[in-house]
Amino acid sequence: MNARVSAPAGARVFRLDAAGVTYAMGVDERGYLQPLHWGLALAADDPLIARAAAELSGFDPAGSITAQEFPGQGEGLVAEPGVKAAFADGNRDLVLKYRAHRVEDDALLVELADIDRPVSVTLRYVMDAGTGVLGRSATVANEGIEPVRLDRLAAAVLTLPVGDDYCLHYLSGRHAAEWTRHTAPVGPALTLLESRRGSTGHGNQPWFAVGRDGLTSEEHGPVWYGALAWSGSFRIGVARDNLGRVRVSAGYNPHDFAWTLKPAEVLETPVLWAGYSGGGWGGASRDFHRFQAARILPGGAAARLRPVLYNSWEATAFDVTLDGQVALAEKAARIGAERFVLDDGWFGERHGDRAALGDWTVNRAKFPDGLAPLIARVRALGMDFGLWVEPEMVNPDSDLYRAHPDWVLHHPGRPRTEGRNQLVLNLARDDVRDHLLAVLDALVRDHDLAFLKWDYNRNWTEAGWPDAAAEDRQRVHVAYVRNLYHILSELRRRHPALEMEACSGGGGRVDLGILAWSDQVWPSDNTDPFDRLAIQDGFTRAYSPQVMMAWVTDSPNWANGRRTPLDYRFLSAMQGGLGIGANLNHWGEAEFAAAARWVAAYKEVRGTVQRGRLYRIDPPLDDAAASATMYVSADGGQAVMFQMLRGSMFRDDPTPHRARGLDAAATYAVRMLGGGLLPDGVPPRASGAWWMARGLRAPLKGDYSGAAFVFDREN
Ligand code: GLA
Asked: Which ligand 1 atom sits nearest the alpha carbon of residue 353?
């Protein structure tokens, strides 16, 4: 639900208020729309006045020091613009001033227009009533009779209160090493978080969080944060200007962006969702998780809890056969898996990663009667069935490429760089879009699929679109992603029970855009359970544990050779959506028994883990020997604390992990998840205050061990 907007007719100040947050802007005497406040809720009659700036010196004319809500690149602007345009006559000066505003369906729309040229920008604002998270986007309209080229376009520019003590948190990584958190001071140097890869990428996440040094900690202090709902090349800029104002701009990445607006044409940006919390980094992420569940993820509050899945990729790779998959499915069912996913290798002449992407028909040598016998067996075992696809890609060695070599992104006459032996189909083309939708629609319908793991295993190179008009070729960056969203939304519309997982060589395409169509994501190909703790810590700073899958795989792990006990692997993987990816053919009775016990235990707490409030008690960072993460159910009735030991040094470490998020006055009984006796010194019941003040610690020893405590509220 959106918050009510205060913008009476004739108003010069507009504000959105919800959940302890106020966002306000106002029009000054010269007509500029100025940001006035974003942060802690203000009183209804607090002074909010937009004043025109005066020149500071010849080097800082009024136009350059006026903080604008969405500046055009013109006049004296030296900060990041909201939009940069070039007119047919060569003029490149764009100065946007307030023209009108209106409220439509709880959205505030503020129209800006150039002082002379027929170009307008409509800024759209909504605020989520439950969390105060603000949604901002912009639509540029060409109101003239000549084309106008846009060279840059942001969804929003945000302005923070003047200060010199801001610090930026951001997430970055690479394949199999995603989600590392970085911290940097916000100074006069522009910090850019971006992807130039055509998709979100493993590099920088389109997410930021800004706090104040010395004031902001895990549970206290102000945090301004946001994420761009876009799965293509993006750019987020963060800088403090010479007057101490911090600006965050976010939108299309201008590095190869251009869009020539025809007369009467409009271009709309994706949404930047941005929130404010006074509750530290932890409070900010809990608000954002809650917002995502309510407003972004498919199904909203009615969404299903993530089923426990088995995926056969790490067990069989491309070597899939009916008998081999049935054998694994039988074993997966024994341990309580609820979904069986057949990964890569089932289609066309796919025997390795050199061929067949594009040929989405079942390989009859591997599955002589198609997938039906496997699916029937999986269902008889009580599981639903999911399939891996990588629809946006094609191998040159495929029937699809042989039929349509012109369907890939390329510049004619130039080499077509391959990544993992594959090329990227140009989804910006409507014929490619329609082909993929038809193929996937038939695949889901013919097999009554419950689940698609949608992969995407390379970045763009030579992003040419030769059959588009020369001035429209760079639209590829926007048109591709829009057509991708079209396919995803259309598949979901036609198959309401279908669930989807977003994967891109692990976490290469995770963002609030793809999450609108994805029930879950695959955060990383790195399935090492210790690395995964850090990956999960980074992931959940931005995104909800509800969508964060992890698999229990084999030891030693393929990624780094680390050996870990099975219990530790389960305890690491069950901190989000649990999956199993081990080669079950290598397991003995002891492993099956342990796995069945852990899967059953997980099912008791998964509602709390996936939908609860996440507290980082002791994060698994900075070489911490011990870490602890806690989840408290939305109704406060259950909590679970995972305690993980990387390695022992000396003798017992007596430092307890102190609970958070419990009701101090309530009584909680405590037990070990998965069974077993409580350690000495841990009472079977005590008040929330006791657990939060005194804490508790499992007597873990050795390397890579873990335990989890469940708190059940008694009154
Ligand atoms: C990517 C995915 C893996 C697996 C392989 C299959 O790497 O991230 O999980 O699906 O592709 O080729």
From this structure: 12
